[in-house]
Amino acid sequence: MLRVRTLLACAAVVAGMVSTPGVAVADEVPRTGFEESGGSRWTSTEEEHAFLAAVDRGSRRMSLDQIGTTLRGLPLHLVRLGDPAPARRGPVVLFLCSQHGDEPAGREACLTRIRDFAFTSDPAVVRLLRTTTLLFVPTANPDGRVANTRGNADGVDINRDHVALATPEGRAIAAVLRDFRPDVVHDLHEFNPTPPFYDKDLLWLWPRNLNVRQRVHDEAETLSRDFVRPAVEGDGHPTGVYGIWVDPVTGEPIRQVAGDGQERILRNTAGLKHALGLLVESNIAPNPGEDASAAANRRVHTHLLAVQGTLRMVTERRAQVELATTLSRLTAPLDRGPIYFGGADNEPPPDPARVEPNPPCGYRLTAEQFTQVRETLALHDVRSVRTADGGRLVPMFQTSRPLIPLLLDPRADFEITAGVASPDCR
Fold this sequence. Notes:
Strand order of the largest sheet: 1-2-4-3-5-10-6-7
Distance between the termini: 64 Å
């Protein structure tokens, strides 16, 4: 059980740092509504805004910016943390909290973690803040959180909008991905279990899209299996792969119910943009013997442990993480490999026609098409050049190569417009 008046789980990110939750701090630091209630209710929007403002005022390590506005006029915030002040340094880690408004535990974990880092005096955490850029979107779906709905004010699932960018929330997140180029994107969610096949305290998953560069994919899977899993299981909480039902006796997978390679889902979009995408989901249902408050605290606590695992990897495998993401970005324009319009790392494309073995050098758009998608392409950091007929050419020779066909090829499942593949980009 988490204790009010106690900071939760400072991350065990370097050798010698505390590895158990519960680092006491002074009583006068800001508290969330969740903490003040002992976990009997979630932090309100008004309390969140007051909490973030108080932390921002009280700590030189934090910067609070508004990166967008929801349909109902609520601000979308980005928190940057660093020591002695927020600045870009070392690997960039983005925590995106509660894209689904009815999944509040990740948001609570992010709020307390922001406060922990802003006020801690632990030398190891200070070293982390001096060598790493930490970003938080503490509530990625404010309208949904107020209404306790999965979608935003229009009912749109934001975690299915990272290609089309039809929502203000999706556009704000895309701008953060473009402007900060995170090395790790840690996405916090919750799930409803299906006992006994799908009933762990926390689930995790990496990018499965087949167009994610191999080194990025492998480091992301390492993050899931070798860092998040032991961080949570080491505290006594069972974990598993998101989307996979397992036999409760043998532990063998028996059915996949979610977790595919859709490029519009953030963990996959992040991978296509050369970041280690990570989906983490805590179990909403009470465990035996838990009342509602105990269940809520456990949900938040397991997210905090997962955050601890991510920060441990960023510390212990800093060189490998930065090498994977940097090489992925630098060499993507030179790639001549196939493009996949379906399938996943555990499932081949359903049809050979959904694989392009000889990708074009670019895609041509009419002037009208370009006008319609210009803003979306810019948010995806996709460049284009004017053609003699007044249209535009989107060359594949750019960092965004893994994503471009999924945006512009008619074979893609979620293309924003149907471009014409061009064999000649002169």
